[in-house]
From TrEMBL, chain A:
One of its GO terms (molecular function) is ABC-type sulfate transporter activity. Part of the ABC transporter complex CysAWTP (TC 3.A.1.6.1) involved in sulfate/thiosulfate import. Probably responsible for the translocation of the substrate across the membrane. InterPro entries: CysW_permease, MetI-like, MetI-like_sf, Sulph_transpt2. This is Sulfate transport system permease protein CysW.
From TrEMBL, chain B:
This is Sulfate ABC transporter ATP-binding protein. GO terms for cellular component: ATP-binding cassette (ABC) transporter complex. Signal peptide: none annotated. It comes from Terasakiispira papahanaumokuakeensis. SMART domains: AAA (SM00382). Residues 3-237 form the ABC transporter domain. Keywords: ATP-binding, Cell membrane, Membrane, Nucleotide-binding, Sulfate transport, Translocase, Transport.
Automatic annotation (TrEMBL), chain C:
Keywords: Membrane, Sulfate transport, Transmembrane, Transmembrane helix, Transport. It comes from Terasakiispira papahanaumokuakeensis. This is Sulfate transport system permease protein CysT. It is found in: Cell membrane. It is a multi-pass membrane protein. Residues 70-274 form the ABC transmembrane type-1 domain. One of its GO terms (molecular function) is ABC-type sulfate transporter activity. InterPro entries: CysT_permease (IPR011865), MetI-like (IPR000515), MetI-like_sf (IPR035906), Sulph_transpt2 (IPR005667). Part of the ABC transporter complex CysAWTP (TC 3.A.1.6.1) involved in sulfate/thiosulfate import. Probably responsible for the translocation of the substrate across the membrane. Its main location: membrane.
Length: 292, 372, 288
């Protein structure tokens, strides 16, 4: 008698292992080797040289500027993302779909075009920029411009993580809380937030990763002045022209942030799936009898 | 606290969910809103709670007009159809929530809250599960947590949306009895929505039957079954056998079948008869000529149910008839046999009046028992 | 005279109170934010191009060098998204269907191109595929294939940055696919390949197209990853984003805006088509 086995397409060991090996091979060539390459290049002249490149005052300034930009961008987009997600998932109003489509636009826009949009408006010849210029306020080719385009490029991330989750979760728990007398803030803090915190964290690290690494849009509005408006990705580009090892040293910092992002993402997904599993678990059988 | 609903109407786009309707619910009463889906019963419940705003009309709790009051301030207890328990909180935290979000000057101390939660969980017999999460509970247990949570703030009005809808038949029956007891003890005014007629009839002091956004009838359960005021209520509650005919020579005729009608009621229309309001005869009687064929016999239960199809006339659905086991033995009916029936009582909806008139016939034949 | 006597109270339409709080605050903030950071700058671009006049606009956007960049960008993005359609499907399949050591690591690694800054990806790929690099040395030395500073380099950079799109759109669909449909196919005597082709692929198709389209859209605008490996030779390996960038370096804002408006128009059109396509297949497959 043949043992009963579930047979699905592609379960044959030959097919299975061929596909797995091909995938692993391609992934190694396309993703793993380049990743290793970054660190290999960075340390090509030894650890001492690596540290010297990082400790360079221009590099340090670029690191600080990059962190500063991210520190402004992330909270702004976090607040916006929560507001937008709450509005579109908890209410019906005319223009709701339009709002969600508009939110997606920064994803579709080329970073260079994004930078251009801001340069046109706030640059010296732009219709807001010329007014600002008269009042000696300079946004472009200065850090405010960098923050502005970074906010633009990263604004959909938090909302995009929250909307599907909040939609799927529905609004009943929140309605129940309101009936029980909870205020708006109490509803958010005690009922909504615990349910979305992991997605929120994921949205934040994605926003952060992109904010730290944005290149195209920032290169348009920054002017790349060393020690002033040079962010880490721009610094990498400048260095790459003549001292590529130093460029890779800076690049390895950015790659480190990317790896950290991937690790946090994996952890968050693991927590989220555990939470989902808990919420959909089979009830434990507990002896109890009603009305006896 | 009594509830008064005055001319409440609600429209969703082009759909009239509630026609203007009014309803009075007495203090301490348990009232069931019964109707098929789309009848507006859940909308009405949500309007009472304040979860939905009415387009027109007013809602009164006792002498207080709450129409303009936000849900948060209406202080009703509400049990959601799927319970809406906070999944990330323990059972105890769920029950405590309503107390913990009270403004500081009204909020009991944390020791008092703990005490009260313990009492509530005792009441719903779930104290041993206080530290569990909702996902670890069975449907019936979740239901009781939802109830304890709703009752924690001691609301004077308890509203429940399909409270037992998601439970299996056995648990449902147990919970019904239990809820009835709880209501006897605590005497809150309660309104619940259901599409299950047994549930409505068994639990309610008054049943409100709804269809298409209107109230069809409000009555005590027994009266509702005994004297429905419309075709809809007749159809919706229990089984009914319908005979549609034209008046002619003192009879209501259809094909080869007829039923004698009293002079004052003579008109074309429909006769509605409950299964227990008819009896089987071997031959046509002076009251009725209704030849039928036995399609199925179901002997399980307090009585034997016969399913009958007309011979030489028509009905929209097969007729049902109940026979005591004793009688059934005497008749020894089986599938395919031909029988006659006669009504003892019926409600007549004539084509000219909306309300039904009650008709009863004297028993003609006790001697009509003949072998078929 | 009206015959109906109605209590004035009943005529007053109660103000509809929303159950959940915060519509005004959240919607107001969202609309304000989107207007400021998105709509206002977009209107700036529209005004800039409107000032140009049609003739000059047409002259700028049909400049032969720019047209060559359109062709390179479109063709490269097409190849990159085709490659990702196949590779992404393979990755998603392996990740969902098989259990093997390192599966979770592979799953995490898929998102690397999203997490890695494009400039870093750019210099890394350029170095790897240059004649002195690990891949470039072998490819040009042994096979005579030149990657760096050619259109092929552009394709590779575009493919790299958009790998996750197809994987992440196909993966959930593949996960939710019921085993019964496959089993039904097999009980009817179909071979593995037939079941895949006739039953699985049609269900995956909408997600696959969506993923590939997203990948294509992203590739059209890609800048940081491309410019290092492309070498930026006029008429050969200049992408359109670079053309915009170069016009800006020359302070020719009008020309930059004109070319940008073409890119932006295509991107928005693609976004719209993807949205419509998704709405259609969601309705069909999920009865929404």
């Amino acid at each position: 008698m043949a043992a009963k086995q579930s047979h699905r397409v592609g379960d044959h060991p030959l097919v299975k292992w061929t596909l797995i090996i091909v995938t692993l091979l391609l992934t190694s060539i396309l993703l793993v080797v380049p990743l290793v390459g970054i660190f290999h290049q960075a340390f090509a002249l030894g650890a001492a040289h690596y540290w010297a490149s990082i400790a360079d005052s221009y590099t340090l300034h670029a690191i600080l500027l990059t962190l500063f930009v991210a520190a402004l961008t992330v909270p702004l987009n976090l607040v916006f993302g929560i507001m937008l997600a709450w509005a579109v998932t908890r209410f019906q109003f005319p223009g709701r779909k339009l709002l969600m489509t508009l939110m997606d636009i920064p994803f579709a826009v080329s970073p260079v075009v994004a930078g251009l949009l801001y340069l046109l408006l706030y640059g010296r010849n732009g219709w807001i920029g010329s007014w600002l210029d008269e009042h000696s306020i300079q946004l472009m080719f200065a850090w405010p411009g960098i923050v502005m385009v970074t906010v633009f490029v990263t604004c959909p991330f938090v909302a995009r993580e929250l909307i599907p989750l909040m939609q799927q979760h529905g609004r009943e728990e929140e309605e129940a809380a309101v009936i029980l007398g909870a205020s708006g803030w109490q509803v958010f803090r005690r009922v909504t937030f615990p349910n979305i915190k992991w997605a929120l964290l994921y949205g934040v690290i994605l926003t952060n990763a992109r904010a730290v690494g944005e290149f195209g849009a920032v290169s348009v509005v920054s002017g790349s002045i060393r020690g002033e408006t040079n962010t880490l990705p721009l610094h990498v580009q400048l260095l790459y022209q003549d001292e590529s090892v130093a460029a890779f040293a800076s690049a390895s910092l950015l790659a480190g942030i990317a790896l950290l992002t991937l690790i946090i993402k994996a952890l968050v997904e693991w927590r989220q799936s555990r939470q989902d599993k808990l919420a959909n678990a089979e009830p434990l059988v507990v002896a109890d009898k009603v009305g006896s | 606290m009594s509830i008064r609903i005055e001319n409440v109407a609600k429209r969703f786009g082009a759909f009239q969910a509630l026609a203007p309707l009014s309803l009075d619910i007495g203090e301490g009463e348990m009232v069931g809103l019964l109707g098929p889906s789309g009848s507006g019963k859940t909308t009405l419940l949500r309007i009472i709670a304040g979860l939905e705003g009415a387009d027109t009309g007013r809602i009164w709790f006792g002498s207080r007009d709450v129409s303009e009051l936000h849900v948060r301030d209406r202080r009703v207890g509400f049990v959601f159809q799927h319970y809406a328990l906070f999944k990330h909180m323990t059972v105890a935290d769920n029950v405590a929530f309503g107390l913990e979000v009270l403004p500081r000057h009204e909020r009991p101390s944390s020791a008092q809250i703990k005490q009260r939660v313990g009492d509530l969980l005792d009441m719903v017999q779930l104290n041993h599960l206080a530290q569990r999460f909702p996902a670890q509970l069975s449907g019936g247990q979740k239901q009781r947590v939802a109830l304890a949570r709703a009752l924690a703030t001691q609301p004077e009005v308890l509203l429940m949306d399909e409270p037992f809808g998601a439970l299996d038949a056995k648990v449902r029956k147990e919970l019904r009895q239990w809820l009835r007891q709880l209501h006897e003890e605590l005497k809150f005014t309660s309104v619940f929505v259901t599409h299950d007629q047994d549930e409505a009839l068994e639990l309610s002091d008054q049943v409100v039957v709804m269809s298409h956004g209107r109230i069809e009838q409000v009555d005590e359960p027994a009266k509702l079954y005994a004297s429905p005021q419309s075709r809809f209520v007749f159809d919706f509650l229990g089984h009914v056998n319908v005979f549609e005919g034209q008046s002619y020579r003192g009879r209501l005729n259809q094909g080869q079948a007829w039923i004698q009608l009293p002079e004052q009621h003579l008109d074309s229309g429909e006769l509605y008869m409950r299964p227990h309001e008819m009896r089987v005869t071997a031959n046509p009687t002076t009251i009725a000529h209704l030849p039928l064929k036995v399609m199925a016999v179901n002997p399980v239960g307090a009585e034997v149910r016969l399913e009958l199809v007309p011979l030489g006339w028509e009905t929209s659905s097969p007729w049902e008839l109940g026979l005591s086991h004793h009688e059934y033995q005497r008749w020894s009916l089986k599938r395919g046999d031909q029988v006659y029936v006669e009504p003892s009582k019926a409600h007549f909806f004539s084509q000219h009046t909306a309300a039904p008139s009650e008709i009863s016939w004297p028993c003609t034949s006790t001697a009509g028992v003949v072998e078929v | 005279m009206s015959s109906s006597v109605v209590n004035s109270n009943d005529m007053r339409r109660p103000r509809h109170k929303r159950v959940l709080p915060g519509l005004g605050l959240t919607l107001g903030t969202s609309v304000l934010f989107i207007s400021l950071i998105l709509l206002l700058p977009l209107s700036g671009l529209v005004m800039q191009t409107a000032e140009m006049g049609w003739e000059r606009y047409w002259f700028v956007i049909t400049d032969p060098q720019v047209v060559a960049s359109y062709r390179l960008t479109l063709v490269s993005a097409l190849w990159a998204s085709l490659f990702n359609g196949v590779f992404g499907l393979l990755l998603a399949w392996v990740l969902v269907r098989y259990e093997f050591p390192g599966r979770r690591l592979l799953d995490a690694l898929v998102d690397l191109p999203f997490a890695l800054p494009t400039a870093v990806a750019g210099i890394t790929l350029a170095t790897l595929y240059s004649d002195e690099g690990w891949y470039g040395g072998w490819l040009s030395g042994e096979l005579g294939i030149q990657v760096a500073y050619t259109p092929l380099g552009v394709v590779i950079a575009m493919a790299f940055t958009s790998i996750p799109f197809v994987v992440r759109t196909v993966q959930p669909v593949l996960e939710e696919m019921a085993v019964e449909e496959e089993e039904a196919g097999m009980t009817l005597g179909a071979s593995d390949w037939t079941v895949f082709r006739r039953i699985l692929l049609p269900s995956l198709w909408p997600a696959l197209v969506t993923g590939a389209a997203l990948s294509f859209t992203r590739s059209l605008g890609e800048f940081g990853a491309v410019i290092f490996i492309a070498g930026n030779m006029p008429y050969v390996s200049e992408v359109t984003s670079l053309m915009i960038f170069m016009r800006l370096q020359e302070f020719d804002f009008a020309a930059a805006s004109a070319i940008a408006s073409v890119v932006l128009g295509v991107s928005l059109l693609l976004l719209l088509l993807i949205n419509i396509w998704q709405a259609r297949f969601l309705r069909r497959f999920q009865g929404r």
